[in-house]
Design goal:
Helix content: over 70%
Largest sheet: none
CATH architecture of the domain at 89-297: Orthogonal Bundle
Number of helices: 14
CATH topology of the domain at 89-297: MetI-like fold
């Protein structure tokens, strides 16, 4: 198991280096000068601009800037924001609880709905339920997040007035200092009547929008895995023994079918964090995604680089955990079989 873990850890190093290079180059391909954006379009002093570029290291060659960036990362320094002059890591971890809360609720919705839907589709293979679940899954996977979010806002929030349009809580009715950064928990800790419901009310639409694609993926993988397991000999034997359908499907089939589903859930973390950028922008959700969009608009190179690398580190860690967990569940993977 130790050798398997070390192999997986070794594979993360080139992945991380490739991410640093792609991130560094891609950000600098975006048109615009961060110094000019910071100073404004009018009354720019060329001497002042040259001084600021030198302070930020932008007057160096690209290779020199990239090397300095790698050295900086090696020391655990993700940079300082050009806009706010504060640590990128500090800003990231201040905003990350909002993104994590949204992602967890979206994933919870995807698992609660997606797994049973996939099971029913497999059990009723070829029937209306199967075709319906798979058709809805294809639609859900294909819908652009920004279109789906705007559609729900227009219908649910504007026309039907069932949910708020934006934000995490009504700041006029409820105000309290954050303790954990998770609005549902902080609202509960505040003791204010109705605060938890209001926070949950604000969370419904963003969670549905962000959880749609993972839900579709989980439903399809659950169906595929269940179909494979239901054809196994031990499942037919359980049925021949006269066990109830609930025990055959829930106890024998589903437990074995969940292995690839658990792996898929772990791999959806990257999808959730990528989708959070659009979701948070549409719903004005004050998280990491909205912060990255603002950094792009301001050409804040350090914030963009640091934010993307911190998110990448989280995704790499989750994928590594899933690989190790899968290796623990299936010993054949540890021995390369």
């Amino acid at each position: 198991m130790l050798k398997y873990l070390l192999r997986r850890l070794a594979l993360t190093i080139p992945t991380f280096l490739a991410l640093t290079l792609v991130t560094f180059v891609a950000i600098r391909l975006v048109p615009g000068d961060p110094v000019e954006v910071r100073q404004g379009e009018h009354g720019i002093d060329p001497i002042r601009l040259a001084k600021l570029r030198h302070e930020l290291g932008l007057d160096q060659s690209i290779l020199h800037q990239y090397w300095d960036y790698l050295v900086q990362l090696a020391h655990g320094d993700f940079g300082t924001s050009i806009r706010t002059q504060t640590s990128v890591a500090s800003e990231f971890f201040t905003l990350f609880p909002a993104t994590l809360e949204l992602a967890l609720c979206a994933m919870l919705l995807a698992v609660i709905v997606g797994v049973p839907a996939g099971v029913f589709a497999a059990v009723k293979r070829g029937g209306p339920i199967d075709h319906g679940v798979m058709g809805i899954s294809v639609i859900g996977y294909s819908m652009p997040i920004f279109w789906w979010g705007l559609l729900l806002i227009m219908l649910v929030s504007e026309r039907w007035e069932l949910t708020p349009i934006s934000g995490r809580i009504d700041p006029i009715k409820y105000y309290f200092d954050p303790v954990t950064g998770f609005m549902l928990i902080d609202a509960w800790l505040s003791g204010q009547e109705g605060a938890v419901w209001d926070a949950a009310h604000h969370l419904i639409l963003p969670a549905i929008v962000l959880g749609t694609i993972p839900l579709a993926v989980i439903a399809r993988i659950t169906r595929s895995s269940m179909l494979e397991v239901l054809s196994e000999d031990y499942v037919r034997t359980a049925r021949a023994k006269g066990l109830s359908p609930f025990r055959v499907i829930g106890l024998h089939a589903l437990r074995n079918a969940l292995i690839p589903v658990v792996t898929s859930i772990g791999l959806q973390v990257g999808t959730l964090l990528a989708g959070a950028v659009l979701t948070e922008t549409i719903f004005s959700w004050p998280g990491v995604g909205k912060w990255l969009i603002e950094s792009i608009n301001q050409r804040d190179y350090p914030a963009l680089q640091g934010g993307i690398m911190l998110i990448s580190c989280l995704v790499i860690m989750v994928n590594l955990f899933v690989d190790v967990l899968y290796g623990a569940i299936n010993p054949r993977l540890r021995h390369g079989r």
